[in-house]
Design goal:
Blueprint (H helix, E strand, L loop, with lengths): L55 E3 L4 E8 L11 E7 L3 E5 L6 E5 L4 E2 L2 E2 L4 E6 L19 H5 L3 E5 L17 H15 L7 E10 L1 H11 L7 H6 L18 E5 L8 H8 L14 H20 L23 H20 L4 E4 L13 E4 L2 H8 L6 E4 L4 E4 L2 H8 L17 H5 L12 H14 L11 H9 L8 H7 L2 H5 L14 E7 L7 H14 L3 E7 L13 H12 L3
Parallel strand pairs: 8-9, 8-10, 10-11, 11-16, 16-17
Antiparallel strand pairs: 1-2, 2-3, 3-9, 4-5, 6-7, 12-13, 14-15
Helix pairs in contact: 2-3, 5-6, 6-11, 11-12
Length: 582
């Protein structure tokens, strides 16, 4: 969808024709609204206006900043729903206030830093929410954490966001509140566009893992009516001072290892990896071994309903195979092609001898990996084929060919999660807390998983380790519950599924404003999610009509900010410069 496409929401309000339309000047304080969307007669607790007299200044590095501005009128959690703004000094004209510490500043559209001016500078927003956790807002100023972005001429906005670990005894911060807060912060920036430097037409989100997932959701669901009741409850800026609708659609998304598409993730995990494992919860004596096989069998049916096509328009489907579970068909061939491309990119990007260091644990865990040096490409290919021959190598053309999924998975991508990898049968997975109905109340959220349980629980009950608490009734009970805004699990699950907005298989298709620029990077070795997760997002974006999708799955890297070459921050900044309008 191009930026001039107009989408009309379910409420009948036309979405913006371009990001810049209906983003008027900041005006009077925004009135708080009730969960029903009607205006409240009481005054808002917080003004949505950014105070132009409240800037602080770092003279050493020429940076103006504001810390801790609440970005909604009726916040549920002021400790999270506030943001900080960091602006290169060239983009503001300021005078010192009488207090000797703050400044009154006006945006200077002609000030320049690098390729940008105060009018054209993109606004970048980090989404650092591993496991869909909360993102704490900044409480003090630090230049080090934002220096690379500001030196490149970007405006950096750091919002606090609620998440699965920030709930209290009186407040649930589970989905969709994290993305709701992110959208509210975007709307706040547009509400204040007249007093802020930078281009609110060019807002770019970036994040890794659960952060990559949430910026993917936000990028796919711009202006979706699914989020309206949540936004209104917290008093997000729905209109500007002149009554014109504001947008929460963004221009770009940078997602590293996005753990998303949670509604089907149990199924794809078992099809992609679990079907090749036979230990722990996949050992033959356990009910979960049968559950694994049933999940794997169910996923191709879901995949085929998506109607995905490759870049040439060819329909991608899975078909039954003589060995394994649906290891045949055009989708299977496409997956093997992605894996082969990743390996050949690795061979072309690097020289041998080459040392590979495996990741010891999740980023920030402090766990160290192991390092192995391979003298030649042939040595490395021999290593890959240690247990079975699944890679062939042509030294003349310096190209490798991957022959099948099983050899790749057993060598490079073994399952590290139990069966029920996302919606756990005992509600014990982290994602069960993402959809919790209250503090310490993890919930089932995946109807596709419930369907598999319901169809097969009589068989599962014949195993000694089966517990009736794992049955489909537990799922149905959780699905029926409603959150504080009156929405059930189906509504919330749709809101957090990017394919709901991108695929014609879902009701949300073409009822949102999708970001026009995407960059997706993932480590191919990660056992945290299936290869199909990011591949399907990429394909759905291309099928939707998004022309700018820069995608790569990176060989020899796992769950990290994976890059083929260079470092993630530099590459992200360069990508932003390459795609935004100067």
């Amino acid at each position: 969808m191009n930026r001039r496409t107009v989408i009309r929401s379910a409420t009948g309000v036309a979405a913006l024709a371009t990001f810049g339309v209906a983003e008027g000047t900041a005006g009077t304080a925004f009135a708080a609204t009730s969960s029903s969307g009607s205006s409240s007669s009481t005054s808002a607790a917080y003004s949505l206006e950014l105070d132009p007299t409240a800037w602080s200044y770092d003279a050493t590095n020429d940076v103006y900043y504001q810390i801790g501005k609440v970005y909604v009128a009726n916040p549920a959690a002021t400790d999270y729903e506030n943001l900080s703004i960091y602006v290169p000094g060239a983009y503001l004209t300021a005078t010192a206030n009488s207090d000797g510490t703050t400044y009154t500043a006006k945006a200077d559209p002609k000030g320049t830093v690098g390729a940008y001016s105060g009018r054209t500078a993109p606004i970048v927003i980090p989404v650092n929410t591993p496991g869909y956790a909360q993102q704490a807002p900044a409480t003090s100023y630090s230049y080090t954490s934002v220096s690379a972005y500001l030196e490149a001429g970007l405006v950096y906005v750091w919002p606090g966001l609620r998440g699965r670990d920030s709930s209290t005894s009186t407040r649930s911060d589970a989905a969709p509140w994290g993305v709701t807060d992110l959208k509210a912060a975007v709307r706040f920036l547009r509400y204040n566009r007249s007093v802020l430097p930078g281009s609110t037409d060019d807002i770019v989100l970036f994040g890794m893992s659960g952060g990559g997932a949430q910026d993917t959701v936000a990028g796919a669901s711009g202006d979706s009516p699914l989020f309206d009741p949540y936004l209104r409850t917290i008093g997000a800026a729905m209109e500007d001072a002149r009554g014109r609708p504001l947008s929460d659609a963004v221009a770009g998304v940078m997602a590293w290892c996005p753990i998303t598409d949670l509604a089907e993730a149990n199924l794809s995990y078992e099809w992609n990896m679990g079907q090749f494992a036979s230990t722990s919860t996949r050992a033959s004596v356990t009910w979960t071994s049968a559950y694994s096989a049933d999940l794997a069998k169910a996923w191709p049916k879901y995949l085929n309903r998506l109607g995905l096509r490759d870049e040439h328009g060819k329909r991608l489907e899975l078909t039954e195979s003589s060995n394994g579970t649906y290891l045949s068909g055009s989708y299977y061939d496409h997956l093997i092609g992605v894996i082969t491309t990743s390996l050949n990119n690795f061979l072309s990007d690097n020289t041998f001898p080459y040392t590979i260091t495996t990741q010891g644990g999740p980023p920030g865990s402090g766990q160290t990996g192991t390092s192995t040096t391979y003298e030649t490409v042939a040595d490395y290919i021999a290593h890959l084929n240690t247990d079975s021959t699944w890679v062939t190598y042509d030294a003349t053309t310096d190209t490798a060919t991957v022959s099948g999924l099983e050899g790749f998975v057993n060598s490079q991508k073994t399952a590290n999660k139990p069966v029920g990898a996302f919606d756990g049968y005992s509600r014990g997975q982290g994602e069960n807390s993402v959809f919790a109905m209250g503090l310490n109340a993890p919930s089932h959220f995946a109807p596709l998983t419930r369907d598999v349980i319901k169809a097969n629980e009589t068989t599962y009950a014949t195993y000694s380790d089966w517990d009736s608490a794992y049955g489909s009734a537990a799922y149905d009970s959780d699905f029926a519950k409603k959150d504080s805004v009156g929405k059930d699990m189906a509504w919330r699950g749709d809101a957090y599924n990017p394919l709901y907005f991108l695929s014609p298989a879902f009701d949300g298709y073409r009822r949102s404003r999708v970001a026009r620029h995407w960059r997706i990077r993932t480590g191919i070795m990660q056992g945290d999610t299936a290869n199909t997760t990011e591949i399907n997002v990429q394909l759905a974006l291309l099928n939707y009509g998004i022309r700018d999708v820069d995608f790569a799955t990176v060989w020899a890297q796992a769950h990290t900010m994976a890059e083929r070459t260079g470092d993630s921050t530099t590459n992200f900044i360069s990508w932003v410069e390459s795609v935004v309008k100067k």
